[in-house]
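Q: Please design a sequence for this.
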């Protein structure tokens, strides 16, 4: 009986820590131990890489947006690394390139997003390589804001702020995304972030690393930079816009695909090796426990039921009631409980998928985001 209670309170403590206590602790620590970035306005040569697979609906608009950035034209080139697109993506890029010599097409055999990015970086001679999704829109000053952070010799990687908007311009970030961006800012102030985003980020060319193509850059490059004793930071003033997934169900399917890569990185990517003690706590708290939240919740639910049946007292009944209330709220369609339940369930489904069939390197665009 005592063993069940110890496991119960440990499991509950880990869930509360990763979702509530750790963010509060990170926010407090960031106030006390802020590590500033030595930013300055500089203008290195930059190659912006867009990895694209069948991006016909958005690629022309993406190129026009990048060509209009507030950055010296003679120091900026744009490369579309087309991952064996079989629609009109390549044709559209070639047409733009005929008018704009700063734009070029790098046609790649089908190998996945990271393989296409690696090919583009290998062909670049710029001081900085920046990356963007084909469906993103950057603010005019976004690139300047990114590279200002890379003027710091300790900073190797910087990502910007992704803002999610519907086609009518209404903000759809939601509570969860605002929470994630706030936590990312706290981790950056402490030293380095534990995850980036694919819509807007940049590295010094000399610091770029070819990671396993199945890993993706968002979650692997920040911790790899820290392993190399460099910093990976967040710049909220470098803004990008993207259309969100159209429904919670489509977001759930996107999360399943994303968490498959997360499990691969966690179990095969040497994610916890050669990290500083503080950053190790951040990775375990924000990443490892978050990926394992589905397992923790299933364990907690089973333990709660067992301890209530064994009549071990009111605290176990209360925790069970909260869990069942959350599930009921999700089934009734309440937005926050429903979102939380689906994202938590996605961690379990993705683990099963990973164990059953592994993770492919190739990718498809998230449904409804073009």
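A: Design:
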């Amino acid at each position: 009986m005592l063993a069940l209670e110890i496991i119960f309170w440990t499991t509950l403590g880990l869930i509360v820590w990763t979702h509530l206590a750790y963010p509060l602790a990170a926010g407090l620590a960031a106030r006390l131990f802020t590590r500033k970035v030595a930013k300055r306005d500089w203008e290195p040569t930059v190659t912006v890489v867009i990895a694209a697979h069948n991006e016909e609906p958005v690629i022309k608009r993406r190129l026009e947006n990048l060509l209009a950035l507030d950055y010296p034209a003679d120091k900026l080139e744009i490369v579309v690394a087309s991952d064996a697109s079989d629609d009109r993506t390549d044709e559209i890029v070639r047409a733009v390139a005929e008018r704009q010599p700063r734009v070029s097409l790098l046609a790649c055999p089908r190998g996945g997003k990271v393989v296409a990015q690696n090919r583009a970086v290998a062909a670049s001679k710029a001081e900085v390589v920046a990356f963007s999704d084909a469906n993103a829109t950057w603010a005019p000053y976004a690139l300047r804001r990114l590279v200002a952070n890379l003027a710091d010799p300790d900073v190797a990687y910087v990502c910007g702020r992704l803002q999610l908007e519907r086609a009518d311009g209404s903000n759809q970030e939601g509570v969860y995304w605002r929470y994630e961006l706030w936590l990312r800012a706290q981790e950056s102030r402490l030293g380095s972030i534990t995850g980036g985003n694919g819509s807007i980020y940049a590295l010094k060319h000399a610091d770029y690393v070819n990671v396993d193509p199945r890993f993706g850059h968002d979650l692997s490059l920040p911790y790899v930079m820290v392993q190399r004793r460099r910093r990976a930071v967040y710049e909220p003033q470098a803004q990008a816009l993207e259309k969100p997934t159209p429904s919670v169900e489509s977001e759930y399917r996107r999360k399943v695909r994303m968490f498959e890569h997360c499990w691969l990185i966690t179990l095969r990517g040497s994610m916890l090796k050669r990290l500083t003690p503080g950053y190790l706590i951040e990775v375990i708290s924000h990443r490892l426990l978050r990926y394992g939240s589905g397992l923790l919740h299933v364990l907690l639910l089973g333990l709660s039921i067992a301890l209530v049946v064994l009549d071990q007292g009111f605290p176990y009944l209360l925790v069970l009631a909260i869990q069942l209330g959350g599930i009921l709220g999700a089934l009734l369609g309440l937005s926050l409980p429903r979102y939380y339940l689906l994202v938590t369930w996605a961690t379990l489904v993705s683990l099963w998928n990973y164990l059953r069939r592994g993770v492919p390197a190739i990718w498809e665009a998230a449904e409804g985001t073009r």
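Q: Thanks. Anything notable?
A: The first strand starts at residue 46 and ends at 52. Residues 46-244 form a domain with the Spore Coat Polysaccharide Biosynthesis Protein SpsA; Chain A fold (CATH 3.90.550.10).
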